[in-house]
Amino acid sequence: MSIQLIDHNEDLKKLKDEGYNISIINDNIVVKGIPYVNKEKKIVFGTIFCPFTLSGENKVLQQNHTVRFAGEFPCDQFGKEDKSYVNSPQTFPLTNDIIGNYYFSSKPLSGNYPDFYSKIKRYVHLLSAPAKSIDPSVTAQNFDFESYNEVSIFNYPDTNTARAGLTHISGKLKNQKVAIVGLGGTGSFVLDFVSKTPVKHISLFDGDVMYNHNAFRIPGVISEEELSQRPSKVSFLKNRYDNLRGGIMPYEVFIDGSNVKLLEGHDFVFLALDKAEAKSVIIDYLMTSGIPFVDLGMGLSVVGDSIRGSVRKTLVTPDNSSALNKIAIGQAADNDVYSQNIQISELNALNAILGILAWKKMNGFYISEETIYNSTFIVDEEEISNAT
Q: Boundaries of each THIF-type NAD/FAD binding fold domain copy (predicted)?
């Protein structure tokens, strides 16, 4: 009945089509998820509701210009109570979960609003304007308001995911502990992508320092002054991404047989090493421990006055290691595939993206009818060869 009434009334349907969380509950028009500011100057979300009169079977009419509000006393962006439209505090239970705390009255010059659309939009604007002055991304439309104020690994709300309504999908990654081994060009891009997901913990493993050449193949920029201080890769990247989130743990070491157990307890590992020989002990440990991983690599060479080659990702899981032979391991591989050690930032980024896609598909973030365990992008042909 609720959906039918909304769809049969142009003003209500317009609110629904514009992305407002509108419903009809106990003979009241209810709109949830409206951002406003409380006295702590924090953005929170409230609900407005008002009764209607039914004319015939489907025509919904207003009773007056007022609404009730379930929430705290609305304030301006400085936390000062806004009494311009708050008529009085009144407790009015609509349901066990929706209890009106305040009675709002903002009467138009004409005396009445022409329809529910105009009325709801007016009260939404009054409530949300101070919130938008603090965070312009918050909205009452198509917004995952329930997750906005949750305790988060991020230093500020992830309104990108909330706006897209993808919090429940992104949440599939939430409690994971992820490791990135190798923080050069490809590994740094992996970190950039992983850092923007709600994983609980990101471990960074690399014993090298930042040099000038690293500045030209990592996301973002590093200043000349920072380079002169020769920070370790992992400490520099941790400090940079600490501005976004918590949970980043740097290890200024190269993984080998003496410390490979540092990977214990991780849910997924990204291997982005440029030395094939170092991979053998890591891969053996991950397979023995049942930890899924993706190995990322590229083989580029100069032909004439241009570059050609390929970019590869190989996924290995506890129940499928069919693509393991695609990973170059050992000193001979170092001397062959990586002899020129050419890396280009856009190919580093592409390599990282292939790995991120494999990881997210494995966790159900993206739909995948079958798992692709090996992908090779041929640069000159711009074709991807996949093996399932």
A: 172-297
Residues 6+ away with beta carbon under 8 Å from 199? 153, 173, 174, 175, 176, 177, 178, 247
Note the Cα 339 to chain centre separation in Å.
37
Predicted confidence at residue 57, as pLDDT, reads 67
Query: pTM of the entire structure?
Result: 0.76
* CB neighbour burial string for 147-182, b if at least 16 within 10 angstroms, e if fewer: bbeeeebeeebbbebbbeeebeebeebeebbbbbbb
Which letter does DSSP use for residue 74 in this model?
P
Instruction: Check if the beta carbon of residue 293 is closer than 8 Å to that of residue 270.
Output: yes
- 3-class secondary-structure state, position 233: helix
CA distance 362 to 365: 8
Where b means 16+ CB within 10 Å and e means fewer, 13-37 reads: bbbeeeebbbbbeeebbbbbbbbbb
In which region does residue 295 sit, left (phi positive, over 0), alpha (psi from -120 to 50) or beta (all else)? beta
For the domain made up of 167-387, the CATH class stated in words is: alpha beta
Tokens read off for 65? 């210009």
pLDDT at 337: 43
Which residues does the chain have with pLDDT short of 50? 332, 336-339
101: Cβ contacts below 8 Å, ≥ 6 apart? 69, 70, 71, 72, 73, 89, 90, 91
Counting every residue written for the chain, the total comes to: 388
List the domain boundaries for the chain: 2-143, 167-387
Tokens of 131: 């919130």
Please name which of 48, 17, 49, 45 lies closest in space to residue 142, comparing C-alpha atoms. 17
